[in-house]
Every structure is written in C-alpha cells, then in structure tokens.
Design brief:
Elements: H1 3-86, E1 97-98, H2 99-103, E2 112-113, E3 119-121, E4 127-129, E5 132-133, E6 138-141, H3 147-157, H4 161-167, E7 175-182, E8 186-190, E9 192-193, H5 206-214, E10 218-219, E11 223-224, E12 231-240, E13 246-255, H6 256-260, H7 267-270, E14 274-282, E15 289-296, E16 314-315, H8 321-332, E17 337-343, E18 346-354, E19 361-367, H9 368-371, H10 373-430, H11 445-480, E20 491-498, E21 506-511, E22 520-528, H12 532-552, H13 556-570, E23 577-585, E24 590-596, E25 602-605, E26 611-613, E27 632-635, E28 641-646, H14 648-651, H15 662-672, H16 678-693, E29 702-709, H17 720-726
Parallel strand pairs: 1-6
Antiparallel strand pairs: 2-5, 3-4, 5-9, 6-8, 7-8, 7-13, 10-12, 11-12, 12-13, 14-15, 14-19, 15-16, 17-18, 18-19, 20-29, 21-22, 22-23, 23-24, 24-27, 25-26, 25-28, 28-29
Helix pairs in contact: 1-10, 10-11, 11-12, 12-13
Amino acid sequence: MKIRWKLLLLLLAVSLGPIVAIHSQQYIGMKELAHDLGLGARDKIIERAGQQLQLLAYDAGTLVRREAETIRSVLLTQAYEVEQALAVVPENPQPVFWTALFDTSNESVPGITTSPRYYKINEQGVQTPLPISYDAQVFLLAPGTQEGDVMEFANQLSRMAPHYKRLRTGHTDYIQWQYTALANGLHSSYPGHGGYPDHYDPRKRQWYTSAIERNGFLWNRAIIDAPTHQVVLTASMPVHFPNGEVAGVTAMDVAVLDLMGKVKVPTAWSADARTLFVQPIVSTDSQERQLITLAQLDSADYAGHAWDKPIALRTISSSDERIFTAMLADMQKGKSGYKQMPFKDSDSIWAYGAVGTQGSYLLLIVPLADITADALAAENAIAERINSEFLTSGAVAGVVAIVVLVFAVIGSRTVTRPIAELANAASRLATGDFDTRAIITSRDEVGQLGKAFNAMVPELVDRMRMHESLQVAKEVQQHLLPSNSPHIDGLDICGCSVYCDETGGDYFDYLRLDPGKPGRIGLVLGDVTGHGIPAALLMATARGMLRSRFEEFDKPEVAMNAVNQQLVHDASGGRFMTLMCLFIDTAARKLCWVNAGHDPAIACNLEDGTLSQLEGGGLPLGIAADWTYDQYTCAVPAKGLLLLMGTDGIWEARNPDGEMFGKDRLNDLVRQNATDSARALMERVVSEVHKFRQTQPQEDDITLIVAKISPVESEQGGQSQQNIEDGRTG
C-alpha cells in the first residue's frame, strides 16, 4: 500500500477516530452493563441453586443414614427372633406356604393381593404386578434340597411372619423384603411372594457369603433382586443355633429407587435433572479415583440385567478433571457440597450428600441452562435494544465519514510527493545505481531523511567493500586448514573446523615429519582466544611457526618451546593460544604428545570401550617465554585405539536454558560410536552439538580431530591402557 493511502487512512482515523471511539465505547459500555447485569443475576441464581441442591442432597443423605441405622437396629432384632425360633420345636407350627402357591396365586394363601410397590420388571422394562401376602411368608428350597430334610426347620421359622410384620411397621416405604436363608438350603421371605428363578440358591448370593465371611452385620453393594429385578441394597448378618453353630443368614432388602424417589427436585429443573446413587472407588487397574453409579432414578436403566450377575460398575465423569477430582476428594473425606462443571458437554450443578452406606453418595445433576433460563432471556432482550440504537447512530457516523474523506484525499497528495521521490531513489539504489541521489527541497523531516539517504550511499559502498574483504579472508583461512585427511595404513583420520564468525581462531593440521617413516604423523589442534580477524591472524602466524619449527627440530617439546618464545614477542592485546600436538607412530604402536594448556585428548580402548585422557600439559602459547614443555608417551593397545581432540566450543555449547553440552555427553558419544569410522564419529559429534543448541546461536568455534588406530592381532595390549591412564613421560 502506498504511503499516500496510508496517510489518507491516518487522516480519517484522526478525524473520525474520536467519534467512532466514543460511539463504540458507549456501545461496549452498554453491552457490558447488560452482560454484567445478566451475569450478576446468573451468578446469584447459580449460587442459590447450588446451595439449595446441596441442602437437598444433604437432607436426603441424612435421611438415608438415619434409615440405615434404624434398619441395623431392626435387623439385629430380626436376627434375635430368628435365633429364638430356631431354639425350640413348636408344638403348633404355622402353615408353610411354598413358592409355587404364590406363583399360581393359590387361594389357600391368606391375604394374597397386589401392591404398587411390588412389581416385576421384564427385559423390556415393562412392570407387571407381583402377588404378595402380608399375612404369610414364603418358603423356598434351594437346588438339591429335599423338603423332608428341612421340614423341621420350616416349622420353626413358620412363626416368624408376625415378627417380620411387626418389625417393618413404620418402615414400609423402604424395606422391600425380610428373609432368612439357612445353610441347609431352606429360604423364607416376607411378605410372601413368588417370582423366584428355578435355580435360585440364596447361599450363593453376595449378601449371604459376605455375612458368613464377616460373621457380623454389613451393608452389601447394590444388586438385582431375583423376584422383581429391581435394584436393592441388602443389610445382612449371620444367625446361630443354640450351640453357637452358624445356622444361616437373615437379611433385609431396601429398594434403592424408593429411597431416591423421596428426593424432590424443584419442578422447573426436574425435566433434565439427574438423581443418582454413586460411590467413589479406586480403580484396581490404573489406581485412579473413579465415581461409579450404583443406581439412578430410572428403573428401566437396569432392564434386562441378569439377577445372578453383579451390577456392572458404570463410571460417571466430567470433562473438567480438576473440579471433578476436587469433588472426589470431598467424597473421600465424607463431605457434602456442590460443584459447577460439565456433564455430557452441558455445564451443570453437581450437588452431593453423604449417605454413609459403604461410602456412597446421593448425587443431583441439574443443567445450568435450566437454572439460568430466565436471566438469559432478560439479557437477550436488553442486547437487542442496544443493537437497534447502535445501528441508528452508525448511519449518522457514515455521513460524517464521507465528508472527511474528501478533505483527506486533497491533503494527502501534497504531503506524500517528497516521500515518493525518496522511494524512487531507494529503488534505483537497490538495482546497483550507487550514483543515485534523492532530490528533496523541503525543510521538514522528510527533507532531513533525504539528506541522510544521500550521505548513506557512499558509506554503503565502503561497507560492501569491507564485506568482500572479509569473504576473501575467510577463503584464505579455510585454505590454511587441511582440505583432505591423510591416508595411512592402519590409521583412519578425519578433522573439521566450524567457525562462529566469518573468520575464527581455531586451528587444526596434519604434520608429515619424516618421509622415511610413512606410518608416523602429527595431529595439531589449537584455540586462539577471541574470534574474528585478530584471532584469525594469530592462528595463521602460529600455523607458519609450527610448520617451520617442527621441520627444524626432531623433538616435539623443543619445537613447542621455540614456537612459544616467538609467539610471546609477536602476540599483543593479551592474546594467547592453547595447543596440543599428538604424534602417532603406527609402526612402533606408540603415541607421544606435547600439550600447551589445551584440554586433554580423549582415548577409547577399542577392546573394552574404556575411556581415558592423554594427561599432561603446560601454559598456553604466548604467555611466558621461559616456560618449557614436556613430552608424554604411551603405547597403543593391540586391539586398537580411538582418539578425539577438540576445542571448548564443543562441550561449552549451550542450549536456550543455559545448560552446557558438557564432556559427559561427549564421552558418551565416543563410547557409543567407537566402532564407527573417524568421519562418522566426527559428523555425529557436530550434529549432536547442533541439535543440543536448538535455536541458540553458536558462540564459539568448534574444531575436532578423530583418529582411529586399527588393531594388530599379533600384538598383546594388556598393559597399554594402563600406560594411557598414567600419561607418563618418555
């Protein structure tokens, strides 16, 4: 976009901006006010609804807890009456009514009738009345039990019907069945009823086996009642013969849906509200806390569920794991409360009240949309009115904008002409016309910019020349480094140098000292302090000195002393150079080295992969002229040796977190890739350092040499690794 159009838009913004800003601010303010009013109302409604639901869940939970304690007391009395009945043989036993009589609604059963509370649910969820009798109990024989074997006990229990009836007085809303099952296979239940499956054996039911195992009172997990297929909670406890032997188990069923039906959610919310009976557990697989649904206010939910199979542990959860976990934590502590979080992608209020039965809870879930419907309708009405007012005032602002546009177009042309001239001059400069100049006669800031542009062009030419000179210096320095690795039998060598600037202070070289000994070569690696041109010049100077001195002297330490003395006089500005010279003699299977303050080389024994360092050294070159350097030697292991020389640009490389690459990582790379070629290991090290830095720029030069000495099978290398670790002088 041209600057004239930008200026035009700026003028429009300056002139129309205040009008639009004020108008928009008023609109936004009114929208925010409407939103705040609606939000405040919604928050109040949600808070009150949550408190109301929490109180409702708490009261319902308290009611269930009280009933649970009452049922415990009733069951203890029931167990006492059963044991009393089993302790004597009655002179006049009451009639015994078997289950077949109830299945056929036989008229011989006294008081047989139907009740809305007692019905059977088929697989399609359809309810059909179940005949019952409050005047008689029903007797059932478990599979394999003969009537003659248990008739004596049936006569004893025949007197329990009045006791059952008396004990359930005042609790008929909750108590479904009262029954006693003996170990010999006799089962009696009150009120009398039929509907038992053919293979029903009470001794295999959870309430029976758990009571026998615990030998005391307990509440059992919700199950499907065999005659009615309704969900029930069972309280059970063992009963004994007079001699203390366990006779069987007596129990009571509590209809879960009857309990939950007492929870009355307000009519405005009841259509989408969910009432559930839940229990927090810890998953045996993942050890995570979960919330399972024991029952919900819909008996059809369990339609078709087999009576002799445990109810599957259905889990309920929310997409907001943080709030859901907080609710589970409350439940684990036995607390009641309410939370706001999604349920099946719908934001809802979850209110929960402790029941106290096996750690179970009554949970009410009501969608927020039902709770806040009235507040949302009022907020929408206000928003529609505000939008109407905004459209009217927007039309007035549009007329004003057209008038301002005409004046802005005229003014922008005068201002942008000098800027266009400057842009054209910059375009000519970009094509290589360094004689171009911007002709601007104005005395304002644009005129000053034109003068600065005209003064910049000659300086740009000078900088381009300097850049070309640096490129030439880089090429010259690259030619000073070896372009190819030497080829020596039994020796694999590879080296490289990666500079962080155009030129650098790192240096490596290969020295062929004695043409008569083709298996002898010197590896040189050094690091000059600093970067750029000064470091590159000192590196080039040191290279020339090293090559001439090592050709002049046979002993490496003597040559190093001579180079040091000359560099002390030639180096300036406090610059110095660390250097390590390592000589490999493949024929003699020997290493010797001289170190001037450089980090020791890493040696890896190819037989067992152990790492060591070529220790020994002195001051860096260029510091003290009177310093003398020592030579160190060691033998090469028979199985071969891997050597790595590097500069601190490797292990001092940092990632964006400031962490250094470190020598431990380098040692691991050497150990893990010791069987690779020298070039492969070199490239792997450079690659890993680059990956470690990530987006962090390279701050120092990286130089390394990798040398791999092949094994000699005819030699024995048992003591060579020890020599490397000692680093003793020759």
